[in-house]
């Protein structure tokens, strides 16, 4: 009970002031039949060394030392050491939502800086203080578009992350917000513009695409925006790989951008916590979900920051709120802010270029092997690409694992039409040696007598 | 501030002035002082229908939102666009900072509203003074 | 003005100003990071590229970004100083008591942070093969088992990313359950004392919200509930202990009233810190509930998140849990089961805020059954100690026994023109984070105080002393309270201007 700062004598003194004989008496409001009169059946109290041992053991079971080519919404990027030294400062780690602005200026100013950086990266006017993640952010963006347009339908590209699409469907199903899915061109991996145009009606609130999309292909945002806007629908662009913004043109034609900022210095951590964020045009601020930090001044004229436009939120508007969201991901947003400060204007560009170069090398190395073909080769891409193999995916992945290589994600579950396809990601952390080893393993199939 | 005698009032704290068939609607001084600093006024569009005792918009202070209730039924003929950029005008002079003008569907609705004296009595009762 | 009325910016600080726990000290000024930027400075050096460079413009065509985003250009020392200076402007649990009611601001153990950063845990990818994920899954399984036992429920999902997200998930389960029986029903009942997330959640799940007025004790009016519950009622969303910190002692009746009409009882687990190890919602009739790992189970609040909001439910709701659910396979390995025909669907990509699972489990392991029970008892002891020490000076609107938090009102102080928000600002000068202000809404001018178990008697006594001193100031020098805080870096901020003319991002002066 090392977290409890009281001696038995102190407890006794406190009980005396309250006027009861035991702490248990304080629970008398709970009817006796519902009192738990036994120990919880959970592991016994452990010492700190035992706790560390428990989790070390779990980490070991996960295996280590693998060269990973996994991306698909969770990206491996180098995390500068200063990030953790800053976010582990107790003043950031152990404070809460900055309701009392006078004693939370640190968090508020950091959020304001985060909002500014997101605007600069995405080309939008305003960004919120963060959402849970990219999937829920996309769902909230669709709801926001519906509020703005007064229309209820959405049109979503099939090349949006499949799990994002599942989350959007869960959110939309009980709000009368039907959704249509539009497929991709077999040649380019981009959304089919003809089908898109046909899918939009005067009931369509928004078109939602991801770029780079789930195949790593950059969509033609200006063309998509033109089609959507011509019919009065908004365009939402979801970005899962935020580092792409270092080199890919920002989606300035979009009305709403839903970004997953995990790539900016956030550990993959088996899929969370991450950091979604919604950015939009100034005119849509009041329909935005989530917290916003704004600049103002104090009674003496000093610059300061506050949470603002709170009347959109659930704690005031209750059932009429723009969203039921209450928390943001402040600490994760802080990681992203520090990351973007470390990389800066030139560093982020250089990092993005390295990612492209690595992915390009990996794609060429793999697709040069017999029985391996890369898809969508003529399309603009960032750091992911799809390959199709003659060898069944499971067998190929098993051979790669033997070489301590985590090969691409199997796409058959979501895109069976692609055949034996896998989605590969190469970042600045993948070395040439790893890529050559992966290529050599793929090539070795013939040798093992397939 | 005393309630102007030439206006009619609602228990939801709106006032209305009538000229011909056009009613001009705002919120009372009591309402603005209860709300505090008003930061945003959300109004309908010209041509929108409004219904007596139903909401036609809302006013927001920093930490509260209050619905606006129409005293009468009819059609919005004009809105006070100035409030979009200067919502604080409502705090400055609630009886000058009108919100919408409505072409009344039924003059009898106006006649059924509270007089200044009735409204003052109502407020006194509400605040227990 | 009094000697402790300081202008924090510029003015010299008198040395003899102590207020119990604190004295003033200078804080460092710091501009925005963008204002420190100067072209050519940098804080990063990448490893040299070991593959050929690419012609990005040629590869991307029209999609090439011509102008790099104008992110700040600074060096590493400036980054460390910038964020360290900002951090010193925050109050935090690490500095002292943070009695923000409903938020359970308890100590965040450091071993939690350590284990969450272990390489094999922090770097695990959700799409790596299950054979290489057994360690991660074992953590999920252990936490699930612990939380099921703590709540007395039958099944659980850890997928929701926060409390409100958990509510959303829980009400989806309710909806799916009713739909499976042929009628989704129309309305969800929410007491007027509830958190704003409750009605917002019900609305997002497509339900009409029906308000339930609290009775004179601030509790659920069972007769009124009985009157309004009908075959159209999907559920009641109940916080227990309630937002005024009292246990709904008629909880079994409440559950019976609902169940008799086929409706379900949803429990908002925001106040679970009053119950762990002492009573289990599953035993007193709750059908589905969410937990807040960032409240009850010590994962850090981090300035507003990340949270984690697992949802536990009875067996009747298990088929509807979000997909996937964890299962032990025939070969003994753990894996995710996606074959869930009745699922409400996914509520978040991947498996939830996994990093928070690790921290919460570390907390449970550090406490064990005896530690968790003692924790709950101490949390309730602390709240009652504050109540006993302040109820002569602050109005207690509901005299019902307090659990883990106590709610006063500003009635006596308001008579002198001092409101709860003013008292909150003044307690800052004494070195504490304020309590929750003006919530719950059923108490006019509420002061909602939740000390948690993490406070020593010494810290509690300092807080009590400060609250008593403020009560005296209200009588003697009310202006000092109304103009507080006097010791902070900035004085009261102009929130009206912030909302009327929103400035939500920095822009260079010459753009």
Shape of chain B: globular
Beta-strand percentage range of chain C: 5-15%
Distance between the termini of chain C: 43 Å
Q: What is the CATH class of the largest domain in chain C?
A: Alpha Beta
Helix/strand order of chain C, N-terminal first: EEHHHHHEHEHEHEHEEEEEHEHHEEHHH
What is the CATH architecture term of the largest domain in chain C? 3-Layer(aba) Sandwich
How many domains make up the 3D coordinates of chain B? 1
Q: Classify the secondary structure makeup of chain C into a structural class.
A: alpha/beta
Biggest β-sheet of chain C: count, sense, barrel? 7 strands, mixed
What's the CATH H-level superfamily name of the largest domain in chain C?
Type I PLP-dependent aspartate aminotransferase-like (Major domain)
User: What level of helicity do the residues of chain B show?
Assistant: 10-25%
The helix count of chain C comes to 15
Query: How would a crystallographer describe the biggest sheet of chain B?
Result: 6 strands, antiparallel
Task: Specify the structural class of chain B.
Answer: alpha+beta
Q: Report the CATH architecture of chain B.
A: Beta Barrel
Provide the gyration radius of chain B in Å. Answer: 14 Å
Task: Report the count of strand segments of chain B.
Answer: 9
The ordered H/E elements of chain B are EEEHEEEEEHEHH
Give descriptors for this structure:
heterotrimer; A: 450 residues; alpha/beta; Aspartate Aminotransferase, domain 1; Aspartate Aminotransferase, domain 2; seven-stranded mixed β-sheet; four-stranded antiparallel β-sheet; C: 511 residues; three-stranded antiparallel β-sheet; 33% helix; 10% strand; globular; disordered N terminus
Descriptive overview:
The complex is a heterotrimer of chains A (450), B (129) and C (511). By secondary structure, chain A is α/β, with parallel strands linked by helices. Chain A is built from 13 helices and 15 strands. In chain A, the strands form four sheets. Chain A has a seven-stranded mixed beta sheet, with helices on both faces. In chain A, strands 11-12-15-14 form a four-stranded antiparallel beta sheet, with helices on one face. Chain A has a two-stranded parallel ribbon with strand order 1-13. In chain A, α6 (134-149) packs across α7 (162-172). Chain B has helices spanning 29-35, 89-92, 107-111, 116-127, and strands spanning 8-9, 14-19, 22-27, 38-42, 49-50, 55-61, 65-69, 74-79, 100-104. With 129 residues, chain B is an alpha+beta fold. Helices cover 22% and strands 34% of the residues of chain B. Chain C has two domains: 113-364, 3-Layer(aba) Sandwich (Aspartate Aminotransferase, domain 2); 377-491, Aspartate Aminotransferase, domain 1, CATH 3.90.1150. In chain C, the strands form four sheets. In chain C, strands 3-9-8-7-6-4-5 form a seven-stranded mixed beta sheet, with helices on both faces. A three-stranded antiparallel beta sheet of chain C has the order 12-14-13, with helices on one face. The model of chain C is unreliable at 1-13 (pLDDT under 50). Chains in contact: A-B, A-C, B-C. Chains A and C meet through α1, α2, α3, α4 and α5 of A and α1, α2, α3, α4 and α5 of C.
């Amino acid at each position: 009970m090392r977290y409890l700062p009281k001696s038995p004598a102190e407890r006794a003194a406190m009980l005396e002031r309250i006027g009861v004989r035991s702490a248990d008496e304080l629970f008398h409001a709970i009817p006796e039949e519902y009192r738990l009169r036994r120990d919880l059946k959970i592991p016994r109290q452990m010492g700190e060394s035992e706790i560390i041992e428990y989790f070390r053991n779990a980490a070991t079971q996960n295996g280590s030392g693998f060269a990973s080519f996994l991306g698909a919404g969770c990206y491996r990027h180098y995390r500068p050491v200063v990030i953790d030294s800053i976010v582990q400062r107790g003043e950031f780690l152990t404070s809460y939502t900055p309701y009392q602005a006078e004693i939370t200026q640190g968090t508020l100013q950091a959020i304001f800086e985060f909002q500014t950086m997101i605007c600069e990266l995405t080309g939008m006017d305003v960004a919120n203080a963060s959402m849970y993640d990219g999937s829920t952010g996309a769902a909230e963006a669709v709801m926001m578009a519906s509020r703005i347009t007064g229309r209820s339908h959405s049109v979503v590209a099939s090349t949006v992350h499949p799990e994002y699409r599942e989350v959007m469907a869960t959110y939309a199903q009980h709000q009368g917000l039907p959704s249509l899915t539009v497929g991709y061109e077999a040649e380019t991996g981009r959304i089919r513009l003809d089908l898109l145009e046909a899918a939009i009606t005067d009931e369509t609130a928004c078109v939602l695409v991801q770029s780079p999309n789930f195949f790593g292909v950059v969509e033609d945002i200006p063309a998509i925006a033109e089609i959507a806007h011509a019919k009065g629908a908004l365009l939402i662009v979801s970005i899962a790989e935020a580092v792409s913004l270092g080199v890919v043109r920002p989606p300035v034609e979009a009305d709403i951008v839903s970004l997953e900022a995990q790539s900016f210095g956030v550990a993959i951590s088996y899929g969370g916590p991450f950091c979604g964020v919604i950015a939009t045009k100034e005119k849509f601020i009041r329909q935005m979900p989530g917290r916003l930090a704004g600049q103002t001044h104090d009674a003496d004229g000093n610059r300061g920051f506050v949470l603002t436009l709170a009347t959109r939120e659930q704690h005031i508007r209750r059932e009429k709120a723009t969203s039921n969201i209450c928390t943001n991901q402040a600490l994760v947003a802080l990681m992203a802010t520090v990351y973007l400060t470390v990389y800066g204007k030139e560093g982020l560009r250089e990092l993005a270029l390295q990612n492209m170069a690595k992915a390009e090398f990996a794609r060429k190395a793999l697709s040069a092997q017999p029985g391996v073909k890369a898809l969508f080769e003529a399309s603009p891409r960032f750091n992911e690409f799809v390959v199709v193999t003659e060898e069944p995916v499971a067998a190929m992945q098993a051979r790669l694992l033997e070489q301590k290589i985590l090969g691409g994600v199997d796409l058959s579950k979501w895109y069976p039409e692609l055949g034996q396809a896998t989605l590969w990601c190469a970042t600045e952390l993948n070395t040439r040696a790893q890529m050559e080893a992966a290529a050599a393993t793929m090539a070795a199939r013939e040798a093992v007598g397939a | 501030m005393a309630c102007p005698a030439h206006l009619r009032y609602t228990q939801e704290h709106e006032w209305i002035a009538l000229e011909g068939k056009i009613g001009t609607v705002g919120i009372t001084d009591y309402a603005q002082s209860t709300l505090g600093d008003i930061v945003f006024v959300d109004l309908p569009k010209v041509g929108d229908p409004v219904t007596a005792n139903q909401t036609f918009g809302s006013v927001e202070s920093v930490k509260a939102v209050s619905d606006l209730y129409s005293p009468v039924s009819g059609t919005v003929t004009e809105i006070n666009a100035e409030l979009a950029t200067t919502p604080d005008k409502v705090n400055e002079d609630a009886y000058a900072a009108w919100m919408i003008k409505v072409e009344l569907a039924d003059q009898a609705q106006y006649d059924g509203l509270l007089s200044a004296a009735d409204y003052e009595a109502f407020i006194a009762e509400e605040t227990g003074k | 003005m009094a000697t402790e009325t300081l202008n924090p910016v510029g003015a010299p600080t008198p040395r003899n100003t102590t207020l119990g726990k604190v004295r003033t000290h200078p804080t460092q000024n710091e501009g925005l990071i963008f204002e420190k930027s100067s072209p050519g400075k940098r804080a990063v050096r990448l490893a040299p590229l070991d593959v050929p460079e690419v012609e990005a413009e040629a590869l991307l065509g029209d999609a090439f970004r011509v102008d790099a985003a104008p992110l700040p250009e600074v060096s590493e020392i400036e980054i460390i100083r910038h964020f360290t200076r900002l951090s010193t402007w925050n109050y935090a649990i690490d500095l002292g008591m943070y009695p923000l009611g409903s938020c359970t601001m308890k100590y965040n153990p450091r071993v939690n942070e350590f284990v969450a950063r272990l390489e094999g845990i922090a770097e695990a990818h959700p799409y790596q093969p299950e054979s290489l994920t057994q360690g991660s899954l074992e953590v999920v399984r252990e936490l699930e088992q612990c939380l099921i036992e703590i709540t007395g429920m039958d099944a659980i999902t850890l997928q929701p990313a926060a409390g409100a997200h958990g509510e959303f998930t829980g009400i989806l389960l309710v909806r799916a359950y009713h739909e499976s029986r042929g009628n989704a029903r129309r309305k969800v009942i929410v007491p007027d004392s509830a958190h704003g997330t409750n009605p917002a959640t019900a609305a997002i799940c497509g339900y009409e919200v029906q308000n339930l007025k609290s009775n004179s004790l601030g509790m659920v009016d069972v007769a009124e509930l009985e009157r309004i519950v009908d075959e159209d009622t999907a559920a009641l969303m109940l916080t227990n202990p309630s937002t005024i910190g009292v246990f709904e002692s008629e909880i079994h009746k409440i559950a019976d009233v609902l169940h008799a009409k086929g409706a379900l009882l949803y429990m908002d687990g925001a106040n679970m810190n009053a119950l762990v190890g002492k009573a289990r919602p599953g035993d007193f009739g709750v059908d589905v509930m969410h937990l807040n790992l960032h409240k009850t189970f010590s994962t850090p609040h981090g300035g507003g998140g990340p949270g984690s909001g697992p949802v536990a439910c009875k067996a009747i709701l298990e088929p509807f849990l979000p997909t996937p659910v964890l299962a032990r396979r025939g070969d003994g390995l753990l894996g995710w089961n996606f074959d869930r025909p009745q699922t409400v669907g996914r509520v978040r990509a991947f498996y939830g805020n996994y990093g928070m699972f690790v921290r919460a489990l570390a907390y449970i392991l550090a406490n064990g059954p005896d530690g968790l029970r003692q924790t709950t008892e101490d949390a309730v002891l602390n709240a009652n100690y504050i109540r006993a020490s302040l109820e002569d000076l602050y109005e207690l609107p509901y005299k019902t026994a307090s659990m883990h938090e106590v709610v006063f009102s500003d009635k006596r102080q308001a008579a002198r023109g001092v409101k709860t928000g003013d008292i909150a600002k003044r307690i800052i000068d004494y070195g504490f984070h304020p309590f929750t202000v003006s919530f719950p809404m059923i108490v006019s001018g509420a002061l909602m105080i939740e000390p948690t178990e993490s406070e020593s008697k010494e810290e509690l006594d300092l807080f009590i002393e400060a609250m008593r001193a403020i009560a005296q100031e209200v009588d003697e020098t009310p202006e000092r309270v109304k103009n507080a805080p006097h010791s902070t870096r900035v004085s009261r901020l102009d929130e009206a201007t912030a909302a009327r003319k929103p400035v939500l991002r920095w822009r260079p002066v010459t753009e």
